[in-house]
Write a structure and sequence with these properties.
The strands form three sheets. The protein has a six-stranded mixed sheet, sandwiched between helices. Strands 6-9-11-7 form a four-stranded antiparallel sheet. The protein starts with a helix and ends with a strand. The chain is globular and about 70 Å long. The chain folds into three domains: 61 residues, Transferase, Pyrimidine Nucleoside Phosphorylase, Chain C (Transferase, Pyrimidine Nucleoside Phosphorylase, Chain A, domain 3), CATH 1.20.970; 246 residues, Pyrimidine Nucleoside Phosphorylase, Chain A, domain 2; 87 residues, Pyrimidine nucleoside phosphorylase-like, C-terminal domain (Aldehyde Oxidoreductase, domain 3), CATH 3.90.1170. Strand 4, helix 10 and strand 5 form a beta-alpha-beta unit. The chain is an alpha/beta fold. It has 17 helices and 13 strands.
Length: 432
């Protein structure tokens, strides 16, 4: 088999066979195929696309290019949730104990953030002592004992994806649905869960800009999961404004805690309850997602989910005494209010730009070596649809380094205020 013939075949819009895709991914993994040929094939895929069958072949080949986690020693069905990334997305910190408290097993490997999308691990590491590295035996024992563990991804998981992504990033081939779907699903399948709930976000603060694009991605990933023997559902959720009111690391942990104590933003709470309902249905604890929602709501209102959260964080070394004084836990050296300069109704909260302001305050990374300021971030005081008066507080910026006027100016520009009244956008567009 010759790589040039595979490139030519895809260039001409023909479907690649399982054997051809395996040959390519094996060559990517053992360095026998040069980067320039892989780059050429990636561009051909961007231009000509892939069938669902091809995308499944690609996912499976990538899945077997590295370690595959064996969770069979954990009793019962293992459930996992994956978000395609968004500003203020702290759902893992809420959902994991919420679902675990209802009885399901949550064995989750999460990633770090880069750019405007904060990583779950960075948020958890804002808790002093929290350990993201557990041995396989300790990971499995913890899930069996308390139903939940969240750790960092092993370095050998889906090796081919790391190689492909580094090339996609520099060759203009990131934005291709088969490549996005296979990248996400190969990592989720390698993580060993039996059931997966995908939170596919769309809008300005997400990778997929329209609900139609998000639906197509979700349907592709559901089909891959079905073809490879996994139960997969997908939520389509709006990221045209940040999720909840907090953007940052410690600030988002605080908001997750408030939500688990029934004091959080209602839109964030509702998203987590809907997601938990589907995860509990997938795990077989209830007969429908609606019954799962009711069970999750009962678990949340009783604060049993918060108790499991504390048990989980302590089990991984986290100092839960810091939660006794949340103001001290999140208190940054500097803060600055963002004040409305005009009256009207809030038409848009530019989630992507707000995420970048948060990054520049120190809450995110622009390169993988950047040091995170765990207390940096933004608290939003307004939602899309609110009536705004001159002088109203729109948000507050936080950082352990001085906040300059440019940060404030950039934040003001994220709030689009116009005269006409507007309804608050719907958060959940659909569940597939």
């Amino acid at each position: 088999m010759r790589m040039v013939e595979i490139i030519e075949k895809k260039r001409d819009g023909l479907a690649l066979s399982d054997a051809e895709i395996k040959f390519w991914i094996e060559g990517v993994s053992n360095d026998s195929i040069p980067d320039y040929q892989t780059s050429a094939l990636l561009m051909a895929i961007v231009l000509k696309g892939m069938t669902t069958e091809e995308t499944t072949f690609l996912t499976e080949a990538m899945l077997h290019s590295g370690d595959i986690i064996d969770l069979s020693a954990i009793a019962g069905k293992k459930v996992d949730k994956h978000s395609t990334g968004g500003v203020g997305d702290k759902t893992t910190i809420i959902l994991s104990p919420l679902v675990a408290a209802a009885g399901a097993k949550v064995a989750k490997m999460s990633g770090r953030g880069l750019g405007h999308t904060g990583g779950t691990l960075d948020k958890l590491e804002s808790i002093p002592g929290y350990n993201i590295e557990l041995s396989s035996d300790a990971f499995i024992k913890q899930v069996n004992d308390i139903n939940v563990a969240v750790v960092g991804q092993t370095g050998n998981l889906v090796y081919a994806d790391k190689v492909l992504y580094s090339l996609r990033d520099v060759t203009g081939t990131v934005n291709a649905l088969p490549l996005i779907a296979s990248s996400i699903m190969s990592k989720k399948l390698a993580g060993g869960a039996d059931c997966i709930l995908l939170d596919v976000k769309y809008g300005e603060g997400a990778f997929m800009k329209t609900v139609e694009d998000a639906r197509e991605l979700a349907q592709t990933m559901i089909a891959i999961g079905k073809n490879l023997g996994r139960e997969v559902n997908a939520m389509l959720t709006n990221m045209n404004q940040p999720l909840g009111n907090a953007i940052g690391n410690a600030l988002e942990v605080e908001e997750a805690i408030l939500t688990l104590k029934n004091e959080g933003p209602k839109d964030l709470e509702e998203l987590c309850l809907v997601a938990a309902g589907y995860m509990l249905f997938q795990a077989g604890f209830v007969d429908s997602s609606e019954a799962g929602y009711d069970l999750a709501l009962e678990t949340l209102r009783s604060e049993k989910a918060y108790d499991v959260f504390l048990t989980w964080i302590a089990a991984q070394g986290g100092d839960i005494s810091v939660f006794d004084d949340l103001d001290a836990f999140t208190k940054a050296t500097y803060h600055a209010d963002v004040i409305a300069q005009k009256a009207g109704h809030l038409h848009d909260l530019k989630a992507l730009e707000l995420g970048m302001v948060s990054t520049r305050l120190g809450a995110g990374r622009e390169t993988k070596d950047d040091i995170i300021d765990y207390k940096a971030g933004i608290i939003l005081n307004q939602d899309v649809g609110n009536e705004i008066n001159v002088g109203d507080k729109l948000a507050t910026l936080y950082s352990d380094t001085p906040i300059n006027e440019q940060h404030i100016t950039d934040a003001v520009a994220c709030f689009v205020i116009d005269n006409d009244a507007i309804e608050k956008p719907q958060l959940i567009a659909d569940v597939l």
